[in-house]
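Bumping my old thread because nobody answered last time. Still need a sequence for this structure:
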């Protein structure tokens, strides 16, 4: 067990001494309904930070349980974290404004002398990335039906951020590591430290320094600094391709997942795209629907990408196709549910 003293990050300003630029966020923080924890309480609830369950840009994440035995995940800001006070405040204030079944819930926070921490609901099945690539002793392969349902739920969470809030919120770090799963594999989007909010409903983009994760970042946003909802759409398209292929966005020596999939679908054979671990157990039309949606999301020109509402609709269709796959249909690596030869299928017209 590590000593508690190892969890002292660089000193953060106290609420009263915070820079003027963050004062409004501080005021919102105090007016929020989120619970404010003391560092002593976090030490108690984690049994002196006994069990680490993950790590992100903010720092290590620890398992804990509150006095009423509610399970929580506690993100402690680490000494090496590139995320500072502004990201901390952005995440707390964003999550106190949004409430959706497909967004992770913030239980509270700690801002005490040297300690910054975020306390979330505990998601026992880890991240979508863990499930796809066998981390954390994940022994089973996700079925196609489960994969499509997970990304549909995630898309609904993103659509809410873009259109369901009083002011649109751009997540800015959509990736499979930030889609968390509960014990029933229900999906929720997490990690709002980089999110941005439109200041008015007349804006069509925000000018900002590009930020995000390698492999997921919208190339147009990267080159221009113009952030829009379509930037999240691009990142989500990469996640869709991860779900279809089971592969990471970037494979050394093999390039980016968008280019890899483009080469494979040119043959008209979706089995070349599909994750081999599924053993061909999927409806071909459902697979094509998701892959085609992913390719639309990841077009280079942001203006050509669909809004998340359209992505949600397409994924609902993909899920319905998979759910209708009967016992009499041959598995997806050979025929579709219509019985037509697979070679007749290809990307849908956009």
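Sorry it took so long. Here it is:
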């Amino acid at each position: 067990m590590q000593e508690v003293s190892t969890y002292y990050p660089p000193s953060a300003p106290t609420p009263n001494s915070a820079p003027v630029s963050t004062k409004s966020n501080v005021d919102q923080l105090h007016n929020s309904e989120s619970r404010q924890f003391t560092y002593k309480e976090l030490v108690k609830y984690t049994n002196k930070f006994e069990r680490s369950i993950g790590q992100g840009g903010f720092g290590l994440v620890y398992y804990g349980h509150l006095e009423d035995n509610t399970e929580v995940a506690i993100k402690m800001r680490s000494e090496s974290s590139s995320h500072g006070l502004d990201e901390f405040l952005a995440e707390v204030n964003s999550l106190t404004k949004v409430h959706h079944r497909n967004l992770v819930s913030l239980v509270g926070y700690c801002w005490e002398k040297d300690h910054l921490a975020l306390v979330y609901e505990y998601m026992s099945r880890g991240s979508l990335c863990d499930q796809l690539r066998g981390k954390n002793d994940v022994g089973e392969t996700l079925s196609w039906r489960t994969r499509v349902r997970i990304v549909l739920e995630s898309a609904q969470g993103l659509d809410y951020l873009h259109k369901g809030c009083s002011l649109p919120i751009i997540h800015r770090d959509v990736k499979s590591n930030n889609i968390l799963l509960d014990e029933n594999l229900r999906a929720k989007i997490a990690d709002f430290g980089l999110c941005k909010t439109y200041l008015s409903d007349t804006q069509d983009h925000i000018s900002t320094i590009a930020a995000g994760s390698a492999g997921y970042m919208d190339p147009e946003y990267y080159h221009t600094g113009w952030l829009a909802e379509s930037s999240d759409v691009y990142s989500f398209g990469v996640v869709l391709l991860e779900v279809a292929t089971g592969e990471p966005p970037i494979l050394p020596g093999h390039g980016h997942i968008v280019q890899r999939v483009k080469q494979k679908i040119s043959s008209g054979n979706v089995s070349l795209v599909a994750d081999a671990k599924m053993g061909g157990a999927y409806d071909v039309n459902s697979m094509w629907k998701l892959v085609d949606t992913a390719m639309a999301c990841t077009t280079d020109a942001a203006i050509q990408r669909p809004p998340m509402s359209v992505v949600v609709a397409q994924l609902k269709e993909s899920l319905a196709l998979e759910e209708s796959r009967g016992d009499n249909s041959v598995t997806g690596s050979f025929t579709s549910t219509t019985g037509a030869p697979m070679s007749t299928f290809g990307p849908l017209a956009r």
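Confidence is low (pLDDT under 50) at residues 1-23, 327-350. Let me know if any region looks off to you.
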